[in-house]
Design brief:
Elements (H helix, E strand, L loop, with lengths): L3 E5 L3 H12 L3 E5 L8 H7 L3 E3 L2 H7 L2 E4 L11 H4 L3 E4 L5 H4 L3 H4 L5 H8 L4 E4 L6 H6 L11 E6 L2 H14 L2 E4 L29 H8 L9 H9 L16
Parallel strand pairs: 1-2, 1-4, 2-3, 4-5, 5-6, 7-8
Antiparallel strand pairs: 6-7
Length: 248
């Protein structure tokens, strides 16, 4: 697979992916909506394996690109620069944050299918959306480790999914193929595999307190067999009812 990973979006999830990638020996090209100069501190922290660029430059620099952006920003993904690329979609649909999208509320599309429609010449794979940023980093384990966790993936292109599973293996996770982009609702908010299995017992709290709490929690191993079972028993919920994690 490509030895260069492009990141469009360098927030909490994007930064965790970047840290794992650099630690695994990959080259990382970071980008965000504010400009390369705003990434100087993160690039310095990551070291020689990382550099900053614009989203279009990051897209062109790598065969495999992580789109770690809120769903409401999907229209700003550089479709032309991403043509022919495998794009890993980490987004979740939260109407309270993203605004209501009629096709998603009606269940006509999944959020990843919406992004695939925008990126018609790319191969979109859903991944990294079911785990909080700190646990994404803290639960990573070498291949064959007895306490290795798995993450679900979904996509329409078999080669792109295979490439994604290879990347997950390099970063410290097994991958569980749960089907097509139309099936990706099985790992969306309000499903059994989403967030909570990787955290264990979670106190009731608001979003801000929840995010602080996750930074102090090492996480719980979720092996591939468990991920597969959780995705299999999922029941589709109205997308418009999705709430941010632990927004109690």
């Amino acid at each position: 697979m490509s030895q260069t990973l492009g990141l469009i979006g360098s927030g909490m999830i994007g930064s965790s992916v970047a840290r794992l990638a650099v630690a695994a020996g990959l080259e990382v090209v970071l980008s965000n909506s504010r400009g390369p100069e705003t990434l100087a501190e993160l690039v310095a922290e990551l070291g020689e394996g990382a550099r900053a660029a614009t989203p279009a430059e990051a897209a062109r620099a790598a065969d495999l690109v992580v789109a770690a952006i809120p769903l409401n920003a999907y229209g700003r993904l550089p479709a032309e620069a991403l043509a022919g690329k495998t794009v890993l979609d980490t987004a979740n649909y939260y109407p309270e944050r993203d605004g209501h999208l009629a096709e998603l509320d009606a269940g006509e599309l999944t959020s990843s299918a919406l992004i695939q429609r925008h990126l018609a010449d790319s191969q979109v794979v859903k991944v990294f959306n079911t785990i909080t940023p700190h646990q994404l980093f803290s639960l990573a384990r070498p291949t064959g480790a007895p306490d290795r966790s798995a993450l679900p993936i979904a996509g329409d292109d078999a080669a792109a999914k295979a490439e994604t599973i290879r990347l997950l293996d390099i970063l410290g996770y097994d991958g569980v193929d749960i089907g097509s982009l139309a099936d990706s609702w099985r790992c969306e908010p309000n499903t059994p595999v989403y967030i909570h299995p990787y955290l264990g017992e979670t106190p009731a709290m608001n979003v801000e307190a929840f995010l602080r709490w996750t930074l102090q929690t090492p996480g719980v191993t979720v092996p591939a067999a468990q991920v597969g079972k959780l995705a299999e028993v999922a029941v589709r919920q109205p997308a418009g009812a999705a709430r941010l994690p632990s927004d109690d």
